[in-house]
UniProtKB/TrEMBL annotation:
Domain of life: Bacteria
Designated name of the protein: H-NS histone family protein
SUPFAM superfamilies noted in UniProt: H-NS histone-like proteins (SSF81273)
A Pfam family this chain is assigned to: Histone_HNS
Span of the signal peptide: none
Length: 107
């Protein structure tokens, strides 16, 4: 199929480009679908499931987002604690400047 693009006007060229891009997208989706089927067939032929190979959650391990137990407590105010992660709280730095050691602040 040969198209003489020299005889096409601007609108006809844009229409042709849009149709070609749509067809290109369709072909890519078809190819991906066929590849996905091949991969699933290969996994099944080997006696495994998709989750066995790639894990239960797609995209790898996910963090639970849970809280971490406190590791340090402010001796002046028992309600103030710190897990030891992230930026040090002001009370922790002040206790260190006052001569306390990290092990003195452990819970």
């Amino acid at each position: 199929m040969a198209i003489d693009i020299k005889n096409l006007n601007h609108n006809q060229l844009n229409d042709l480009i849009n149709k070609a891009q749509s067809r290109q997208t369709e072909l890519r989706k078809e190819k991906v679908s066929k590849l996905r089927e091949k991969v699933h067939a290969l996994i099944k032929a080997e006696g495994y499931s998709f989750d066995d190979i790639f894990g239960g959650a797609r995209g790898g391990k996910r963090r639970s987002g849970g809280t971490v137990a406190p590791k340090y407590r402010n001796p002046a105010n028992a309600e103030q604690t710190w897990s030891g992660r992230g930026k040090r709280p002001r009370w922790f730095n002040e206790a260190l400047k006052a001569g306390k050691k990290e092990k003195d602040l452990l819970i």
